[in-house]
Amino acid sequence: MGDLIDAVYDKLGEEVASETIQKDIRKMKLLPPDGFEAPIKYNRRHHGYEYTDPKFTIKGLKLSSNDIESLKESIDLVQYLGGSRVSMNFTHAMEKVLTSYQEAFPKGDVKRQIVQTDSPPASRGFEYFDFFFRACMDRIPVSIVHYSYTKHSFNTLVIHPVLLKEFDNHWYIVGYSDHHEMIRTFGLDRIYDPLYLQKAFQEGNSLEQEEYFKDVYGVYPIKGEVKQKIIFQASPMATNYLQAHPIHDSQKVLKKERADSVITLELIPSVELVRLFRSYGRDIRIIEPAWLTNKILQIRGGNEKR
Fold first, then answer.
1. 3-state percent breakdown (helix, strand, coil) of the chain, nearest 5
2. Which of 87, 128, 205, 233 would you label with 115, given CA atoms 20 to 30 Å apart?
């Protein structure tokens, strides 16, 4: 037992009691998932513990043929659903699991593609995904150089990232901005030279963050607007589509007839919501609020009367 205690100290730099060693050994001998089913026994001749199977290692995994096939199918599905950094990391991790079990992928094991998705090439700025993922996880403030598409200028900002958000095949970082003194969203495609900062992390207003994340369709709320009821009229075609693909969890169909239906939403109006309504053309007509109707007409040029 003394040799084991010394070995633990040499490896971890910490002293452990013999009771802890005994507890760990008992746990190792338990069946999975509680333990490793380790073939450990006490050798009275050598006054110590040993594996009865010298080839045993807790790094080994016992996978059935069904387990292996399930892992392979998971890898295939994740690859079909997107070629993002997340799916690549998952694929590599699963391949390591199979490799640790000495399971080789046969060269002829190529399946016919049965899932095809729209996988646009990674946009500019996606190379910073891991950087901002760590910043969100570890609450690290960052300095960024942000390019404004509207002002055609660069600006250095300090943000406190809390969320990586994907919308319409684009990635955004959401966080408290020191410059704006509020929660803001920044497209990764407009970010340059991000750096971690050694300063206190600004948590921001938790209620503001919750509303920002839950009650917005898209990523850019219209400045000054709050959560409100939006009522609109939809054609039968638009109604069927919106019932199959709701805009938001708050969506309700108040009246569905052979003619137009009345649908309501309760959220913070956003730039993306205005674009969505515009994309439906004459199949959607805003009833309330009036300012939203005016905004859509202004964007269209104000020439369309509905």
1. 35, 25, 40
2. 128
